[in-house]
Amino acid sequence: xxxxxxxxxxxxxxGGSLRLSCAASGSIDSIRSMxxxxxxxxxxxELVAACTAGxxxxxxxxxxxxFTNSRDNAKNTMYLQMNSLKxxxxxxxxxxxxxxxxxxxxxxxxxxxxxxxxxxx
Length: 121
What we know:
This protein is 0% helix and 63% strand. By secondary structure, it is mainly beta.
């Protein structure tokens, strides 16, 4: 069994910062990629940032220069440092990872339960 657990969400004022963490645990052989997605009320889920093959990239233009994505391979953990937060960043943030488990030795996509980020104006 593989699990992804997000943490670090909360309520913050505009201009503030939060750091999200996503920890992968369980019977893990290898992790191909890890990414952050977010979904605001009434909107589609969007890819915010991802780390693939050791390279971490921000994909959403709206977060470039404000969010920094990083990964600690030794801990199977990915982080999203969010600075200069805006009310429009309010969403549920989900962690996604493509992982090969030791039981079946095949690549599968896993999702965390999500963590709420609310930015007040």
